[in-house]
Amino acid sequence: MTFQQIFHKPPETKASASGRVNLLGEHTDYNDGYVLPTAIPQQTTVQLGFSDDGQHHFYSENLQELVSILDIHHTPSGFASYIFGCIEVLKKAGYTIPSLNVYVKSSVPMGSGLSSSAALEVATLRAIRQLLDLPIDDVEIAQLAQQAEIHYAGVQCGIMDQMASSLADTQHILFLDTRSLERRILPFPEGTTIVIIDSGVPRTLATSGYNQRRAECEEAAKLLGVKALRDITDAKVTDTLPEPLNRRARHVVTEDNRVLEVLQGVTPERFGELMNASHASLRDDYEVSVPPLDRLVEILQNTPGVLGARLTGAGFGGACVALVASGKEEAATQALEQYNHAGYTGRILVPN
Ligand code: ADP
Ligand code: MG
After folding, report:
1. Whole-prediction pTM
2. Which of 65, 67, 79 should be mutated for ligand 1, with most atoms under 8 A from CB?
3. Residues 278 and 158 both lie in one domain
4. Given 52, 71, 138, 161, which residue is catalytic?
5. 143 CB near ligand 1 (under 6 Å)
6. Does the keyword ATP-binding apply (predicted)?
7. Predicted confidence band at 113 (pLDDT cuts at 50, 70, 90)?
8. What is the domain range of residue 25?
9. How far apart are CA 155 and CA 33, in angstroms?
10. 161 catalytic per annotation
C-alpha cells in the first residue's frame, strides 16, 4: 500500500535516515564513553502529510499496520510510540505540530541491533523539520530522537544510535565522545570492508540484560566515586570493586581505551585485533554474548581474510560485525556457511 492508497492524497514531503553499526565501543555510551559507529546502506523513509480529521495517523509498510491516535494524552504502544514520541518532544521544545499522516517504509532490519528505532525517529524528525521548516540542527535531531525513545518508547538508550543515524555516513567512521558530543570523521581502515551477519538468534533477554548492566555500571561508578565510568582510564582501578562490578567496569574502561587507541591511528590489522578483544571483553567481563554469537564470531576470526569480528549492538543475540580485507568478502560467506551448518539460520545483512 502506498501513502496515496492509505491517506487518499499524496505526501507533502519525505525524508530518510540510515541504520548504523557500531564497530567498537559497545555498552560505553551510557557510561559517557566513546563509540565508533558507521551508517549502513539500509534506510528508513518517512513520508508526511497533513491529516484533515484532527488525529495523527501512522502507517508502517513493514508491519502493514495503521495506528490512529485518538487521545493525544495517551502514549500508544509499539511502533507508533516512536513516531508519537517525536511529535511530543517537538511540542515540549515549543513547536506547534499539526495533526499528521505518517507513512513509514524501511529496509533496516528491525530488532537486529542495526538501530531501526533510531532510523525511524531521525527520519520522522527530519521529515517534520522539512514540512514545517523548523530551525533544528542534526545534533538536536539526535537529542530529540533520544528523548522520544526514552520517554515514549520506554527504552533507556544512550545517544549513540541517534547521533550515528543523524550524523554518520556509509563512507566514514564517526568517532563520538558521548559526554561532550565532540566528534571526528575517520576513514575506514585502508583496504577493508564491513560485513554484518545476523546470528539468527533473537535478542530475548536484551531489555532486561541491558537495564541490569546499566544499573551495574551506575553502581560501579558510585563506588569508585566518579560521575561515570568514562572518568576511569586505568583498568586496574576496577580490581577494587566486588564481583561482578569489577568485570563490568573493566569492560567499559578497556573498551573506551580501545576506541581511543583507534583515534590515535592504527593499522587495519590492529583495528581487527581491537574488535576481537572487544568481543572477548563483552563475552567474559560484560557477559552479554550467547553461545551462538560466540561460535559465529570465532568462525569469522579463524577465517583467512577476516581481520576481526565481534558482536555488535546490545548483545544477547542479534548481529555481529566483521572487518574483512577488500576483495575477500567471500570469506564471510564461507564463515556463515560453516555457522549455519551447525544448525543456525544466520544471514548476511551488509553488504545487502
Ligand atoms: P533496533 O533498533 O536494533 O532495530 P529496537 O528494538 O530498538 O531494535 O527497535 C525496533 C522497533 O522499532 C520495532 O519493534 C518497531 O517498534 C520500531 N520500528 C523500527 N522500524 C520500523 C518500521 N519500519 N516500521 C514499524 N516499526 C519500526
Ligand atoms: Mg534500537
Report:
1. 0.95
2. 79
3. no
4. 161
5. no
6. yes
7. confident
8. 3-185
9. 19
10. yes
Q: Is the CB of 154 under 6 A from ligand 1?
A: no
* Same domain membership, residue 131 and residue 76: yes
Predicted-complex ipTM score: 0.99
Cβ atoms within 10 A of the Cβ of 99, count? 15
**What φ, ψ does residue 162 adopt, rounded to 5°?**
-70, -35
Domain boundary among 170, 185, 200: 185
Residue 205 has pLDDT above 90, yes or no: no
Residues 6+ apart with CB under 8 A from 67: 57, 58, 59, 76, 78, 79, 80
Number of domains the chain contains? 2
Cα 243 to Cα 261: distance, rounded to the nearest angstrom: 27
- CATH number of the domain residue 112 falls in: 3.30.230.10
pLDDT band for position 194 (cuts 50, 70, 90): very high
| pLDDT of 206 higher than 80 | no
Residues 160-183: tens digit of each pLDDT: 999 999 999 999 999 999 999 999
Q: What is the model's pLDDT at position 202?
A: 86
Would you state the cell numbers that stand for residue 284, as one nine-digit string? 567474559
Q: Which atom of ligand 1 is nearest to the CA of 61?
A: 24
Angle subtended at Cα 159 by Cα 39 and Cα 110, rounded to the nearest 5 degrees: 55
Tell me the CA–centroid distance for residue 344 and ligand 2, in Å: 24
- Residues 122 and 231 both lie in one domain: no
247 and 340: one domain? yes
Is residue 32 packed enough to be buried (19+ CB in 10 Å), middle (13-18) or exposed (0-12)? buried
226 close to ligand 1 (CB < 6 Angstrom): no
Assess whether 205 and 332 both reside in one domain.
yes
Confidence of residue 349 (pLDDT cuts 50, 70, 90): very high
CA-nearest residue for atom 17, ligand 1, is 79
Residue that finishes a domain, picked among 167, 185, 203 = 185
Instruction: Name the 3-class secondary structure at 218.
Output: helix
Amino acid at 174: L
